[in-house]
């Protein structure tokens, strides 16, 4: 394949496929808990982390990671304090943007320098950054694999899980932290504003075709990875932005899954 | 009546429980107790406090006054939650993502397994057993959302039974369930009470579901719990009670 002759395309492919395959693994729990926008909220906190990194002159990834961990705990506390889920999200949404913008302005680097973090810059990666994305992805897979049972229990029915002795509070916090890892892992490829969509779109597509929770998770991960590969191909040949191409392919997958489902239903009705 | 040494007198006990949402009182000095192997139906009009009573009894809400005990232990010190099976209203567990019957049943083991445990041979056998008892083995791979109301309800009961609980708490189990499925549900509950000796608290406004099964019916009205019916005559088909009478 011609595009793989370029080193920057190979890096973009590896990083995008990893980020987009891992996001739906967490998305199945988030969507089931009706918290599809939590990734967006965490993304805004990560933006504040990027601003902080600019101020301190450290790696943006380190700043984003530090702030999402703090933000995940803050979001969890806000929810537990009785603030409704969407109000708590709104607080971190707007708070994150405000703090991030203030810090970036203060750092004197200019607003244009953060556009790559907001919308992704998959074609400008170093192998070091690809390694960091791989490490974050591995951490997410390890946590989801280890905690799959209790996470499924709290996603499906939190009250029953709590009655059954599952430590729901700690698991909800862990889930929010893992969302943060996904967001930071996707920061360089799809960007902080768009990576959260990959936690939702592939899951919505897979849910139309799968028959089990595990099946939905694996199919969604496959759809995420395929969307990344096809999206990159489209971006290369159509000279488009990588992140938007990947998301548009994922939306196409959702529409295709809906079509396949309706054909299946029609087939069953006529059988 | 002969009892095991050390066995609790009551499996679920509310003593003078008071609770309100803000300034709105819901329960006032409510008292209720379930004996081992007893089937108690809890009835009352909508908004009377039935579900609140149940949520307090499960530790999901904290009463402002009074105490709740499970198997003789205060609820805040109670840890063996595998002894309690909880079947919520079906509407509370609507799933936007497909989840199969066996996956739902398996989530019931999550508390027992801890964070990183996997089911052992005995627990895998138990999953098969409850699927069989509830008559849902044939549909174990079907997504829950594709099933009838009765099949969904039996799946949720199977989930509650997978830890071999001694107390089963059902919240409006027949809501949205057709007549045939109600019959199957009754048979399943009969099996649990008669054969497995499980205590049952059955919260419902629909007497058809527990008629002939319940030892006692209590009503929650205006925040208080009152007995509607004296305990029924001893059931000669009940193996536990039959054994007691023979002694």
Q: Portion of residues in helices of chain B?
A: 25-40%
Q: Which value, in Å, is the CA radius of gyration of chain A? A: 19 Å
State the helix count of chain A.
12
Please describe the biggest sheet of chain A, giving its number of strands, its sense, and whether it closes into a barrel: none
User: Shape of chain A from CA axes?
Assistant: globular
pLDDT < 50 runs, ≥5 residues of chain B: 1-5, 230-247
The beta-strand count of chain A equals 0
Oligomerization state of this entry?
heterodimer
Encode the helix/strand succession of chain A as letters: HHHHHHHHHHHH
Distance between the termini of chain B: 8 Å
Mean pLDDT across residues of chain A:
92
Helical fraction of chain A: over 70%
**Sheet with most strands: strand arrangement of chain B:** 6-7-8-3-9-10
- Give the strand content of chain A: under 5%
Order of helices and strands of chain B: EEEHEEEHHHHEHEEEH
Radius of gyration of chain B from CA coordinates = 18 Å
Point out poorly predicted stretches of chain A. Answer: none
- Number of DSSP E strands of chain B: 10
Task: Report the largest inter-chain contact.
Answer: A-B, 30 and 37 residues
How many helices of chain B? The count is 7
Q: Biggest sheet of chain B, in brief?
A: 6 strands, mixed
